[in-house]
Amino acid sequence: MGSREMVEMTNTLKLVTIPLLLWSVVASPAIAQSPTYGVGRTPTAEELRRMDISIGPTGEELPPGRGTAKEGAQVYLQKACIGCHGVTGIGGAAPALRSEQGADLPVWQKERILPLRSPYATTVWDFINRGMPLGLEGTLTPDEVYSLTAYLLFLNNVIPEDQVLDKESLPKVKMPIGDEFGKPHEFKLNSPRLKGYPY
Amino acid sequence: MDSKRNSRRELLKLGTALAGGFTVALRGNAQAQEHSHPATPGSENASPMIHGSKEQIEYGERSKYVTSVRMAHPVGGRASPDVFGKVFHVATPLQDSVGVITPSSLHYVATTRGSYLPDIDPRQHTLTIHGLVDRPLTLTVDDLKRFPSVTRLHFIECAGNRHTGQQKTVQETHGMTSCSEWTGVLLSTLFKECGLKSSAKWFVSEGAEEVKGASSIPIAKGMDDCLIAYGQNGEPLRPQQGFPVRIMVPGFEGIYHTKFLRRIKVVDRFYMNYNEFGHLRPEDKELALGEQIGPKSVITYPSGAQQLPGPGFYEISGLAWSGGGAVKTVEVSTDGGKKWNRAEFKNTAQRMAHVRFAYPWRWDGTETEIMSRCIDEIGQRQPMREEIANWWNVPFERNYRVPGLDNSVMPWRIARDGSVTNGLA
Questions:
Q1: B180 phi and psi, to 5 degrees?
Q2: CATH, residue B156
Q3: CA B10 to chain centre
Q4: Is there a domain that residue A29 lies in?
Q5: Which of the pair, B41 or B197, is modelled with greater confidence?
Q6: Shared-domain flag, residues B220 and B121
Q7: Smallest Cα distance from A89 to chain B, Å
Q8: Is residue B228 part of a domain?
Q9: In the prediction, which pLDDT does B151 show?
Q10: Overall number of domains in chain B
């Protein structure tokens, strides 16, 4: 940082100090303060990278890797998904992964199954990655998760069998539900959940 | 080391034997003694005595005559435990409850899709807050206990807590809610410690169970009253309630109260986790009737499958709660909803906590229906099912399913023989 920039910054700081102090009273969460208690430790970047398994709708947290439905069908066999979820996603003791109902039925009239109802293919990837297979969670490679996601989406007629899913293509998959689902409203403290309900 | 332990055990055995011998000796004396006068009436023991044991000294048990237990919920639904040994939904026996604290052993249990219970060593467990913060932070359970704490009464209710005409008891209709005293650190304290960036809008809370259940929660809620709890009813959380750490999101559906909390990621947008996918509804309006629990109340005595011995005085008693704040008033009707009478509170109504209400009633022995309704501090009112159907402009039918969370009024029918049954049946 050059000295001129420093001077400019100091001036800016002077200008904003007073309003900032006032503002901090009402909007303190948004202000960078120094820690009050100093308890705990700073996690390393590597620790954070390993533990951050949340995949948002844009897929920015997705790891490198790729997979297709054909490869996913093999993984589905190898990883014994078949034992709980049935031969092609139906008929096991665990929740069904494929709709039994007609392809032309609107999605809201079909069963509530993840690969079908989710608005984002990233949700499917995220859940397989964090929660499957039962008892062996966290053992799938990114390629295997991409492949299984592709297989389940193919089984539900969402993508073609040869489509490659990766960090770029997965968030772009057009899910059957489209945009036809309720959006979370902005939460306001001490407000009725739905104004005027039931009158 | 081993020999020391053995000798200690022998000493204990000796102690037990001595104590036993002493009792026998006393009894022997009592029998052998000859009295010139009969024993003083009234000083004899009316019941057998429970002899002290090591276990009782260490961690007390309830009477063997108290048999109230939880049950898998809903009846005829998914089993708990299921074929994999996972637990899904387990309901609290509200029909036997008194006061507002649910004993930790009877607190309802719910998992998103069936889950095992992680057996967490609290010394190995950490909570990490990261994402849109100035200083990511990793805290051990001991670290958490160093922060200023709060202790608050809060209910939790599962979104699956719906009453239908097929259910028999209040445990079946309303048992997926419980209330405890929770102790922990306000999330706002930790957020301030980390320094939230101005782009922070949501946070994702994540548990350490095998599916790492995660929920998206608004930052405004997190800064208001969310609680990182390590204590429940005066002791550490039970494993079924998220030992060693869970998040309390007061007034929100149970699923948001992530158990075994290991990570909070602060983000700038709504993350569609598996839990959120389960919440999806076609319409914004129906979605809005999820998340925050509406004002709700139910009579727990007299309630379904109970029996009134005959006409005469009864104190009608029940629980009321709301996700919108403290319950302000509760009304009770004993004539099927024609006349509503103000109920009294048995404890101080607190924000997002059960309050125990009561109404004195003299039953004349005729068939009737009793029910309760409440209003919370922000003016939300508990509706009748007919009112909800009218609001949605759909015909009201006996099996009408309330959109969103079901906080409608619950009627109990009392027959001439004093039997109590589900008024929706």
A1: -135, 165
A2: 3.90.420.10
A3: 43
A4: no
A5: B197
A6: yes
A7: 17
A8: yes
A9: 98
A10: 2
Q: How many structural domains is chain A composed of?
A: 1
Q: Is residue A167 in a domain?
A: yes
Residue-wise pLDDT for B137-174, tens only, equals 999 999 999 999 999 999 999 999 999 999 999 999 99
Contacts of A118 in chain B (CB under 8 A): 272, 277, 280
Q: Residue B308 belongs to what domain range? A: 296-422
Q: Alpha-carbon distance B243 to B417, whole Å?
A: 46
Same domain for B300 and B206:
no
Instruction: Indicate the average pLDDT of chain A.
Output: 86
Dump pLDDT digits (tens) for B363-416.
Answer: 999 999 999 999 999 999 999 999 999 999 999 998 899 999 999 999 999 999
At residue A145, the pLDDT reads 98
CATH number assigned to the domain comprising residue A130? 1.10.760.10
* Residue A151 forms part of a structural domain: yes
Last residue of a domain, one of B225, B246, B280: B280
- Chain A residues lying within 8 Å of B194, measured CB to CB: 35
pTM summary value: 0.87
pLDDT digit string (tens) for A108-123? 888 889 888 899 999 9
DSSP B166-231: T--SHHHHHTTEEEEEEEEEEHHHHHHHH-B-TT--EEEEEE-STT--EEEEEHHHHHHT-EEEEE
- Does the beta carbon of A37 lie under 8 angstroms from any beta carbon of chain B? yes
Contact assignment for A57 to B204 by CB distance below 8 Å: no
In this prediction the ipTM stands at 0.84
Is A54 in Cβ contact with B287 (below 8 Å)? no
CATH number of the domain where residue B367 is located: 2.60.40.650
Among B195, B264, B200, B269, which Cα is nearest to B226's?
B264
Helix A142-155 vs helix A69-78: crossing angle, to nearest 10: 110
- Residue B271 has its nearest CB partner, among A29, A54, A94, at A54
Partner B contacted by A25 (CB < 8 A): no
Do B260 and B317 share a structural domain? no
The answer as to whether B402 is a domain residue is yes
pLDDT value at residue B389: 96
- Collapse the DSSP code of B330 into the 3-class scheme (helix H, G, I; strand E, B; otherwise coil) and give the result: strand
Choose, out of A26, A136, A193, the residue to mutate when testing the contact with B (most B CBs < 10 Å).
A193
**Range of the structural domain that residue A96 is part of:** 55-172
Q: How many CB atoms lie within 10 A of CB B165?
A: 11
Q: Do A131 and B274 touch (CB under 8 A)?
A: yes
Of residues A88 and B314, which shows the higher confidence score?
B314
Burial of A198 (0-12, 13-18, 19+ CB in 10 A): buried
Q: Say what percent of chain A tops pLDDT 70.
A: 83
**B97 or A33: which carries more pLDDT confidence?**
B97
- Domain end marker among B280, B310, B343: B280
> Are B262 and B206 a contacting pair, CB within 8 Å?
yes
Query: Would you state the pLDDT for residue A23?
Result: 45
